[in-house]
Amino acid sequence: MAGSSTYTPTDNPTRFEKRTFGVLLAIAGIFFLWTVSPIWVPIFLGVMLAVVASPLQRRLERRYRRHPRLLAAGISFVTVALGLGLVVFMGYFVVRELLHYLTEVAPQHAAAAERWLHAPRVTHMLRRVGQTPEGVMKGVQGYGHAAVTHLSDIVGGILAATSNLALIVIFTTITSYYLLLEGPALARFLVRMVPLPQPETRALMHEFHEVAVGTLLGIGVIALVQGTLAGIGFWIFGLGKPLVWGALCAVASLLPAIGTGIVCVPAGIVWAVSGHIGQGIGLLVYWGIIITSIPDYWLRPRLMKGHMRLHELLVLIAVFGGIEAFGAIGILVGPMFVAMFVAMLRIYERNYRLPSTEGRIAPKPRQGTDEEDDEHPRPEPSHPQHA
Question: Pick the residue with more confidence: 196 or 14?
């Protein structure tokens, strides 16, 4: 009977069957990617969140082993809520406070700076370089009006993207929940399905985990620490809105080499020029010793110990290229993609390039210790390696 027949897979499919299946698989893959492409951002964020939170989940499972669904839901909800809070704070509140500062507080600082520029000694110095106090003030005012216009556009864009933000939050939470719940089974499935040797697949998954954790620690945590220290410094030395300045420094810390200096140095100079010389110099010293040295030279090496760390040039390319290619999400996506490419190069060098090189070029025998002979075995002549 037809209903009792069972399907048995073919042990040796023909070339035509392989090609047919390959074409069907490619078509199905294209339609699958086309389907998920509108929501790839929350899916990516959910995957990254689940990968980073998996060690915490394993620790909590020892105490709450009977409630895996509740545990996965709690971790997903709390982490997404914290991330959403930071985005809302830095995206709306900071811009709103900056508009308030530029429209109400900045004119007072501008008046103090104008009085300083009209001082006889400063006026004489400006004339020696071909400038006048009026020309300098006019240029500064032009930059200020351009900044207000740009920030107003940003606020409008943030308000217009509220619906998209809700969609991102929902799908990020759902993706993270299911990956935390089904993560081990999915990992075993990938090990079986990826057409690579299983040790290499596991190494690639390990590299992805290290890249995700390294990106979060090297970018997110350091930015949060530097923003917090900067806010404390602005409060100590009397500059208004320390929360806003701290958030700006957190965003600026994403830029390699320049970092928080793009915010703290001009602020310290302007504060000193406005008549608060001691506070301005103190802010610059605080920036050089506390904001920069502690996170970069003490905290970052400890956080990144054992994790993958990108070169500063690659981070610069990844951040700016990611923002240009993907928008604001490029701050995370860019470094992740670049770090994954570097990780793939490391796997290629370790598992493919070196063995093939040794197989193609048989080195001359040399005298050495047994350990060296074990580390560099000669290829067997009966089993030549191919590229």
Answer: 14
pLDDT tens per residue across span 268-303: 888 888 778 888 888 889 888 888 887 777 777 676
8 A C-beta contact, residue 342 and residue 314 = yes
Confidence of residue 385 (pLDDT cuts 50, 70, 90): very low
Distance CA 302, CA 305 (A): 5
Q: What is the 3-state secondary structure (H, E, C) of 49-85?
A: HHHHHHHHHHHHHCCCCCCHHHHHHHHHHHHHHHHHH
Query: What pLDDT is attached to residue 376?
Result: 47
Q: Taking residues 37-63, what's their average pLDDT? A: 84
Q: Which amino acid is at 132?
A: T
Rounded Cα distance between 32 and 26, Å, is 10
Cα–Cα distance, 95 to 161 (Å, whole number): 15
Are 379 and 362 contacting, i.e. CB atoms less than 8 angstroms apart? yes
SS3 label, residue 387: coil
Q: Which two structure tokens, joined as six digits, stand for 234?
A: 């602005």
Contact 250, 227 (CB under 8 A): yes
Q: What does the block give as tokens for 27? A: 């078509």
Write down the domain spans for the chain. Answer: 38-193, 198-355
